[in-house]
């Protein structure tokens, strides 16, 4: 296990358990207690956790892993979801992509589609509107895509641009499809995220699109989060994995959402 993999595992455990102790973590990861202490010290220096006498606790009450440490969580499900979402997009569309690990995978799936391999400045294979720096960075090297990046203030955890500058740009644009990543999507309470600034951007992206597609693994469904993005009836399609319980899927369908489980 590399140091990066070990750090990612430690951060995952921290989120799942709400705290870590050195000895149990060392036993679980198969390394020495000294290695775990050193890892926790280095992560604390990056302000990704708070060291305690015998281990570590999350940094703050609204802890969120930086995007680069979340990419491998539920990777198989996200891969299937991203392929299915990418298949919904027609050549020539103007699409909006929010930030997040699943939408990043959607961007990669779109870039790999053979039928989107060519385009011209006057007729791009796709026009991609995003407030995610990492997505824009990955797609800008594809000359067949036209990339529109909003302005705004960058969030280090998610690489997303938010705030009045970002909203001003996004408010002037129209899209065919908005692909939205969420922290939670509940049939009664709608789609939501942990942060109000991200929710405001995602809400505007949905409002400016003709079709709204939510890409989310089943762990995010049937639950609530702090800041609402939109009501359930504002969503056209939900693409998720087969772990979604039948009762929750039926509730989404009754609310007017097309559910696709892959």
Features:
alpha/beta; three-stranded antiparallel beta sheet; 22% strand; 262 residues; 36% helix; single chain
Describe the fold and architecture:
The protein has 262 residues and is an alpha/beta fold. It has helices spanning 3-17, 22-29, 33-45, 75-87, 101-111, 133-139, 164-170, 196-207, 246-254; strands at 20-21, 50-51, 55-57, 94-97, 126-130, 145-149, 153-154, 161-162, 175-180, 184-186, 190-193, 209-215, 227-230, 237-240, 258-261. The mean pLDDT is 91.
Number of strands: 15
Rounded average pLDDT? 91
Tell me the Rg in angstroms: 19 Å
Helix proportion: 25-40%
Low-confidence stretches: none
Q: Give the termini distance in whole angstroms.
A: 30 Å
Which structural class is indicated by helix and strand composition?
Answer: alpha/beta
The helix/strand order is HEHHEEHEHEHEEEHEEEHEEEHE
Give the CA-based shape.
Answer: globular
- What is the percentage of strand-forming residues? 15-25%
Strands in their spatial order, largest beta sheet: 6-5-4-9-12-14-15
Total of DSSP H or I helical runs spanning 4+ residues: 9
Largest beta-sheet characterization: 7 strands, parallel
SSE layout and pairing:
Elements: H1 3-17, E1 20-21, H2 22-29, H3 33-45, E2 50-51, E3 55-57, H4 75-87, E4 94-97, H5 101-111, E5 126-130, H6 133-139, E6 145-149, E7 153-154, E8 161-162, H7 164-170, E9 175-180, E10 184-186, E11 190-193, H8 196-207, E12 209-215, E13 227-230, E14 237-240, H9 246-254, E15 258-261
Helix pairs in contact: 2-3, 4-5, 5-6
Brief sketch in words of this structure:
The protein has 262 residues and is α/β, with parallel strands linked by helices.
